[in-house]
């Protein structure tokens, strides 16, 4: 059986169990094993093993039945024991209920007895207290205080309690009969009050918080309690302002007091609020007055800087104090304190700000013009100036004498930065110092000053001066500086627009002033763009005029009709070289002076006018065969120059012009074929005819017959 038990392994698998049994049995191996396979012996082993398993099963079954019987017996005994415990628990619970009812009954009796005792004892205590008060009152009547409570300084707390009650009683007595005793009680009341305040003061100097708390609790019922708080506040500030920064000192003082005031007074939030009020109305107000009054009338710039700095630091201090418990509406409380200090300064703040900004802006501009030794000329206003402006816009004619600016644009980025910087500071001060209801209106006033001095007095004046400095289109060797004005005005206006968005918009974004500011900005932009357009148009006319002078001076009739047709050595004429050099220079200048689509627009206009000039110029000459080839070379060079414009329309115009010049050299028999080509097919026949007429051999019968 022991051998059988060894064959059982956890977990039990029947196949593995049979395998282990076979390998243990002699002759149970395979035929190739060390022992020959013996099926009879294996069968015999299986039969014997089955019998052993049956015996084992019976034995285990008997053991299981025995354990089940034992378990059932123990379960019955346990159930019986549980029933007995339940009965015992019910009995105990009943006893507990009886005991609880008895305790409740006794407690009720005790409470009733206590009420009865209290009903008897309270009047008795009151009577005893009244008797004591009458005894003390008699001492005041006799004029001699004999009780130990009044003579012993250690019992000042008890004396204070008694005298406070006597003082209340004395107030109810008629004055004519008890005037003397009332005055004695009042005198003693005052003396004790002074002693308590003195004791509180001494305890505060010694740093005895517990003693301060006791005395403050006694003084709470006295009229002089507020004086006790005042003494506390006064002594708290002794030695508190040792640094140069009064705001930092005040913040540290309030933090220190906030930590201890709750351990001393029963109403700490009131005491702390009174301390803060004292700091604001005495210390800060005095500091503000010292810092502002001196420079209020003499130095507006310093006054505004000091006002902004002090107000900012005061509001920052107020934000720190918001962390403390100051009562229900601490936001309103602190706002009123700040307003009480700065009201007289904030009422007329915007008048000072705008006055200073105007004078400062005017000084910056005047200093700039003085550095240029320039006396600003008056730009007329009113009906005559408006009439001139309308005539100039419609006719593009210069009205009045041309002014030689010697290349000076009268625009300064340094001046602009200074003006914008001053205005930026003004916007920052306006945001901080203006009442929220007045903020949009005040910001608009500052914006109008910026427009007046930057846009009108500086940019617009420079544009007017630049327009007056543009020479007439027939001037020779004219210096064209207006494009420099355009470049600088463009840069300046970007800076102006950035300040408008960064500093003005946040102040007016939610007010009706937003639309007013946008409209004013739009008007200024349109006014300046109109003058810029006029100046650019007149500058382009001057450029074309310069090209005309070059062509007139350099182009000779013999260029396109040489005397010796076989001895032409040049690739293109001298006039073409100089015109192309001039055009390239002006194109580069235009690209450097403008940005975005403005470059393409101006270059396209210049290119169209350039093409018209060359077209009309070529119409003035008669061309031999070799002269026509030279004209084609010139136009090819002009076309190469036109590529620098990078404008498709301009290049297309010169391509067509180049194709037209081919009519000057093509054989008469091929004229019709060339005219019907891709580039010339859509042109008017009169244009084609006008170019054919320029040929020196046009009058020959053969050519006229072919073109008819």
Automatic annotation (TrEMBL):
Residues 158-707 form the Exocyst complex component Sec10-like alpha-helical bundle domain. InterPro entries: Sec10-like, Sec10_HB, Sec10_N. The keyword Transport applies. Residues 50-88 form a coiled coil. Transmembrane segments: none annotated. GO terms for biological process: exocytosis; Golgi to plasma membrane transport. It comes from the Eukaryota. Residues 39-147 form the Exocyst complex component Sec10 N-terminal domain. The keyword Coiled coil applies. Belongs to the SEC10 family. This is Exocyst complex component 5. It comes from Suricata suricatta (Meerkat).
């Amino acid at each position: 059986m022991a051998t059988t038990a060894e064959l059982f392994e956890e977990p039990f698998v029947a196949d593995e169990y049979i395998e282990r049994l076979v390998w243990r049995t002699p002759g149970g191996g395979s035929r190739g094993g060390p022992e020959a396979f013996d099926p009879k012996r294996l069968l015999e082993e299986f039969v014997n093993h089955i019998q052993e398993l049956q015996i084992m099963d019976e034995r285990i079954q008997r053991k299981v039945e025995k354990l089940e019987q034992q378990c059932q017996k123990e379960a019955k005994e346990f159930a019986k024991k549980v029933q007995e415990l339940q009965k015992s628990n019910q009995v105990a619970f009943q006893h507990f209920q009886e005991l609880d009812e008895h305790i409740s009954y006794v407690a009720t009796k005790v409470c009733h007895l206590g009420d009865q005792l209290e009903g008897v004892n309270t009047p008795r205590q009151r009577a005893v207290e009244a008797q004591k008060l009458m005894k003390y009152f008699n001492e005041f009547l006799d004029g001699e205080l004999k009780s130990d409570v009044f003579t012993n300084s250690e019992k000042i707390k008890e004396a204070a309690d008694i005298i406070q009650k006597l003082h209340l009683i004395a107030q109810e007595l008629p004055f004519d009969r008890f005037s003397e005793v009332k005055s004695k009680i009042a005198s003693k009341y005052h003396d004790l009050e002074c002693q308590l305040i003195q004791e509180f003061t001494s305890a505060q100097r010694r740093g005895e918080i517990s003693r301060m708390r006791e005395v403050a609790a006694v003084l709470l019922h006295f009229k002089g309690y507020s004086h006790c708080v005042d003494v506390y506040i006064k002594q708290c500030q002794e030695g508190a302002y040792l640094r140069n920064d009064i705001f930092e000192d005040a913040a540290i003082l309030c933090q220190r007091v906030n930590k201890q005031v709750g351990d001393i007074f029963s109403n700490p939030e009131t005491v702390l609020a009174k301390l803060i009020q004292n700091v604001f109305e005495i210390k800060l107000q005095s500091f503000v007055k010292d810092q502002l009054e001196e420079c209020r009338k003499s130095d507006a710039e310093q006054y505004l800087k000091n006002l902004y700095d002090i107000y900012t630091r005061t509001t920052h201090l107020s934000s720190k104090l918001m962390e403390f418990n100051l009562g229900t509406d601490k936001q309103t409380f602190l706002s009123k304190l700040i307003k009480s200090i700065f009201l007289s300064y904030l009422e007329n703040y915007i008048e000072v700000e705008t006055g200073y900004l105007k004078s400062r802006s005017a000084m910056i501009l005047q200093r700039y013009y003085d550095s240029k030794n320039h006396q600003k000329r008056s730009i007329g206003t009113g009906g005559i100036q408006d009439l001139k402006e309308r005539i100039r816009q419609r006719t593009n004619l210069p009205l009045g004498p041309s002014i030689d600016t010697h290349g000076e644009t009268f625009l300064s980025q340094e001046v602009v930065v200074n003006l914008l910087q001053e205005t930026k500071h003004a916007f920052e001060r306006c945001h901080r110092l203006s009442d929220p209801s007045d903020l949009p209106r005040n910001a608009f006033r500052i914006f109008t000053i910026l427009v007046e001095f930057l846009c009108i007095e500086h940019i617009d004046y420079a544009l007017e001066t630049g327009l007056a400095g543009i020479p007439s289109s027939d001037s020779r060797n004219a210096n064209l500086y207006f494009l420099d004005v355009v470049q600088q005005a463009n840069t300046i206006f970007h800076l102006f627009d950035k300040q408008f968005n960064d500093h003005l918009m946040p102040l007016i974004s939610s007010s009706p002033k937003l639309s007013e500011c946008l409209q004013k900005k739009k008007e200024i932009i349109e006014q300046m763009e109109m003058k810029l357009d006029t100046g650019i148009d007149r500058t382009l006319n001057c450029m074309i005029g310069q090209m005309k002078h070059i062509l007139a001076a350099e182009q000779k009739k013999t260029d396109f009709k040489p005397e010796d047709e076989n001895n032409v050595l040049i690739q293109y004429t001298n006039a073409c070289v100089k015109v192309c050099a001039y055009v390239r220079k002006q194109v580069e200048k235009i690209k450097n002076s403008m940005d975005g689509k403005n470059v393409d627009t101006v270059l396209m206009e210049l290119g169209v006018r350039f093409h018209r000039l060359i077209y009309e110029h070529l119409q003035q000459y008669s061309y031999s065969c070799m002269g026509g080839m030279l004209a084609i070379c010139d136009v090819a060079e002009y076309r190469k120059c036109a590529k620098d414009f990078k404008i498709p329309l301009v290049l297309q115009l010169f391509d067509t012009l180049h194709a037209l010049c081919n009519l000057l050299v093509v054989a008469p028999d091929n004229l019709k074929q060339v005219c019907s080509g891709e580039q010339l097919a859509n042109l008017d026949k009169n244009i084609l005819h006008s170019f054919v007429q320029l040929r020196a051999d046009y009058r020959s019968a053969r050519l006229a017959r072919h073109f008819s």
